[in-house]
Write a structure and sequence with these properties.
- By secondary structure, the protein is α/β, with parallel strands linked by helices.
- 31% of the residues lie in helices and 23% in strands.
- It has twelve helices and 19 strands.
- It is elongated.
- 44% of the residues are buried.
Length: 465
């Protein structure tokens, strides 16, 4: 028989303190009844002797010390799981908001989850095609990888996220099941509507599960949203044998919600006011990506975060970079030149790229081509710096070719339309087309056999995949 507690001891923002509690445990879900009619949920985030600090999901409005009844549920935060979740839209804590009714399932899972056991992990192989050349060609996303996108306020990361959801696939010749779990934290209503409308109009909504925590939703819900999304992804991947791409935007909203709740608890702040356990909280989420040995499924993460003041050394991108396997960086200067997507190639990298490309995966020339494009684009920066000092007319013929290459590379390779979905062959062939603007002797990062096959002819086929 459940015990019901009458009244509260104190209220502080989204947190309440309840004394005299018995047999409670950390992360246990609590049910509140306010004024005998309004229902709210919370979870225990701290226990000390007979005292419990409870985080209220819907906020503490209308709650007072005397008008609230509290009942312990005896279980942690759980979500009902079913394949029927595909094509559905939920709020930040997993309640349906699309008017299609609740998910009917006897299977419920604790959303807190666990990082994958390192012993059971399988090394990531194969790539996920996004249809975006700057990603597929130079920072290839590998199944089971966690590859964040570092953006800034005002940059088109929402548009890029929507394009990736629309275009992502396992490749044209794959017969394996693929789906996207999309979790948005602290987004404005118009942004949420943009995502909903884009997915519906493009016809991909039937293989997308959406979790939306809006800007005016309670801030503590943002701490649950990525956990709910990842629990759903793990179920679809490891029990339904699907390959799942999880897109989480914006992880900065998650971290700021954590800072706000930590401040309410009176905890000693660390860098920039964030709690000292920010690293472990981010790692707990990111490490839920991967492949389990013996299971025909995978969870791949593409978290998006906005860097405050475009500062890549800020604690959120800084700690994220330690945990994840690379990053994709958006550039404000490219955005100012109307280049979309404004991906800054040189600071971007995918540490697992080498293991999921090449012969048998993409094409035999992929790694050499990517190395050469990186090298050539780095020399473009040197040529531009030199031109700003001595003038473009005084440059050598080779440096002038690098300037022309750089302009074409940004406009044609990095830049592509928001509706343009390029195959991996189109991306690779375009790379060779641009490298032909440079003298052959400048291409020192490519194997001579590959160079002879792909530089000297424009008829590049996919026969050696």
């Amino acid at each position: 028989m459940a015990i019901e507690y009458l009244g509260l001891s104190s209220i502080n923002g989204p947190l309440i303190v309840l004394e005299g509690i018995q047999d409670a445990f950390y992360d246990e879900i609590v049910e509140f009844t306010v004024n005998g009619k309004e229902k709210k949920m919370g979870r225990i985030i701290e226990l000390y002797e007979d005292k419990a600090i409870i985080q209220v999901f819907e906020g503490t409005q209308n709650m007072s010390l005397k008008n609230t009844h509290t009942k312990l549920s005896g279980h942690p935060m759980e979500i009902a799981l079913s394949p029927d979740m595909l094509g559905r839209t939920f709020d930040g804590i997993g309640r349906p908001i699309d008017g299609l009714g609740p998910i009917i399932s006897t299977l419920k899972r604790d959303v807190n989850g666990l990082p994958l056991n390192p012993v059971r992990r399988e090394y990531p192989r194969n790539y996920i095609r996004t249809g975006i050349s700057a990603i597929d060609g130079l920072t290839t996303l590998i199944r089971g990888q966690k590859l964040p996108i570092f953006s800034g306020n005002g940059l088109p990361h929402d548009q890029l996220a929507a394009q990736i959801v629309k275009q992502a696939s396992l490749g044209d010749d794959s017969t394996e099941q693929f789906a996207v779990v999309f979790g948005a934290m602290g987004v404005k209503h118009d942004v949420a509507e943009f995502f909903r409308r884009t997915f519906e109009e493009s016809g991909v909504a039937d293989h997308v599960v959406m979790f939306l925590n809006l800007a005016d939703d309670p801030v503590v819900e943002r701490l649950i949203t990525p956990k709910v999304a990842l629990t759903t992804a793990e179920y679809l991947a490891f029990e339904q044998n699907m390959h799942i791409l999880v897109i989480l935007t914006d992880m900065t909203s998650f971290a700021e919600a954590m800072r706000e709740v930590s401040s309410s608890k009176g905890e000693i702040p660390s860098r920039k006011g964030y709690p000292g356990y920010l690293y472990s909280e981010l790692a707990t989420l990111y490490e839920r990506a991967g492949i389990v040995a013996g299971v025909n499924g995978s969870v791949t993460q593409l978290p998006i975060l906005t860097m405050p003041n475009d500062d890549i050394t800020h604690p959120i991108p800084d700690l994220t970079g330690y945990i994840t396997e690379g990053q994709i960086v958006l550039d404000r200067n490219l955005h100012g030149q109307a280049v979309y997507p404004p991906i800054s190639v040189l600071p971007s990298l995918s540490r697992l790229m080498k293991d999921g490309i090449g012969k048998g995966f993409t094409r035999e020339d992929h790694q050499d081509l990517a190395n050469q494009l990186f090298s050539a684009y780095a020399k473009v920066g040197d040529a531009r710096n030199l031109a700003s000092v001595i003038g473009e007319d005084e440059l050598s013929a080779t440096d002038k070719k690098y300037l022309a290459f750089g302009k074409a590379f940004e406009e044609r390779y990095i830049g592509q339309g928001p509706e343009e979905n390029r195959t991996i062959e189109e991306t690779l062939n375009l790379g060779w087309e641009l490298l032909r603007m440079l003298p052959k002797e400048e291409l020192d990062r490519v194997d001579t056999k590959v160079l002879a096959k792909y530089y000297d002819t424009e008829d590049n086929t996919d026969s050696d995949r």
